[in-house]
Specification:
alpha/beta; 6-stranded parallel sheet; 10 helices; disordered C terminus; binds NADP nicotinamide-adenine-dinucleotide phosphate
């Protein structure tokens, strides 16, 4: 006799693939969204061994949609049936949709970034210095250029900088030249300052006065050393929470076609960061509210 499917088994399955994934806030954020949307769905994190395993598991377990994170965003691309043009130009896929076994790759990081920036400022016609030359930096460059802005990359590795310049058609310079950047905004797309390395900043505080706005893609902790230094230098600051929420919200749109509750998702992530101790208490930053991230 065939076993009847349990209620859990009948739910649509979504997943995160990366390595490591244990500390990821994606499951919590997606479950908060599904609950508020009344979706019969669950989202599981898998520590994957490689891209072949990711595509095999998606097909075997009939996973409807997957988030892909470090270190598989580029490696998974050749294993997909189709890759959207923006993801192909950026060179990274962070989202997979499974249409009856046909796997399609997307990049929602660049949209997350531009929606987050758009909550505070207008990108069009303005120069942005992007630090780093990895997948997140490439997404930032693509998003800023798509929004009519002028991205310039500052990185420590000349070879990856050259590859980024070639693929995305933007100038890349050594990180040591950052003090000569005449830019409206600065965006940190390196992991420097993340939980575990709090207290570190990719940038000397002395250069921050030149920028009106400083964004850190890091969201754990929400207030990095870079953002504290930027506030002290009088810059507007944007943390990585809103980008994270918007990239996840776009994944849900791609997978379900339904509008996700962005505010609910942001609140859930913020509450978890507070629980983990990564968020300063109200008023500790000493800056007017409007100068901070929307979430
Ligand atoms: P990645 O592909 O590993 O790239 C990291 C980049 O940072 C590389 O160019 C690396 O240079 C550079 N870097 C690392 N340590 C550095 C240091 N000490 N000084 C200068 N440059 C350094 O990582 P990624 O996927 O681009 O992610 C970068 C950051 O963005 C991570 O913190 C990630 O959590 C964050 N992120 C946030 C969101 C969000 O939604 N908020 C989304 C995506 C990513 P080398 O090549 O020389 O190592």
């Amino acid at each position: 006799m065939r076993r009847r499917k349990s209620r859990e088994d009948r739910k649509d399955l979504f997943a995160l693939f990366g390595n490591p994934v244990a500390q990821s806030l994606s499951p919590l954020m997606h479950h908060a969204a599904y609950g508020a949307m009344g979706l019969e769905a669950r989202y599981e994190a898998f520590q994957a061994g490689g891209p072949e395993e990711i595509v095999r598991l998606i097909r075997e377990r009939d996973i409807r949609g997957a988030s892909v994170t470090i270190p598989f965003k580029t490696a998974v691309m050749p294993f997909l049936d189709e890759v959207a043009e923006d993801a192909r130009i950026i060179g990274a896929v962070n989202t997979i949709r499974n249409r009856g076994g046909r796997l399609e790759g997307f990049n929602t990081d660049w949209l997350g970034l531009t929606r987050s920036l758009g909550e505070h400022l207008n990108v069009r016609g303005r120069r942005f210095a992007v630090i780093g030359a990895g997948g997140a930096a490439r997404a930032a460059v693509f998003g800023i250029a798509r929004g009519g802005g002028l991205p310039v990359v500052y990185c420590r590795n000349a070879e990856t900088g050259r590859a980024l310049s070639r693929d995305l058609g933007c100038l890349s310079l050594p990180l040591s030249r950052l003090q000569t950047a005449q830019a409206y905004g600065l965006i940190n797309a390196t992991p420097v300052g993340m939980a575990g390395g709090e207290g570190q900043s990719p940038v000397d505080p002395g250069v921050l006065r030149c920028f009106d706005w400083v964004m850190d893609m890091i969201y754990n902790p929400l207030q990095t050393r870079l953002l504290r230094d930027a506030e002290a230098a009088g810059c507007g600051v944007i943390n990585g929470l809103s980008m994270f929420v918007h990239q996840g919200a776009e994944q849900i749109r791609i997978w379900t076609g339904i509008e996700p509750p962005v505010d609910v998702m942001a609140l859930a992530v913020r509450a978890e960061l507070v629980r983990r101790g990564g968020v300063p208490g109200e008023g500790e930053t000493g800056q007017p509210e409007k100068r901070h991230g929307a979430f």
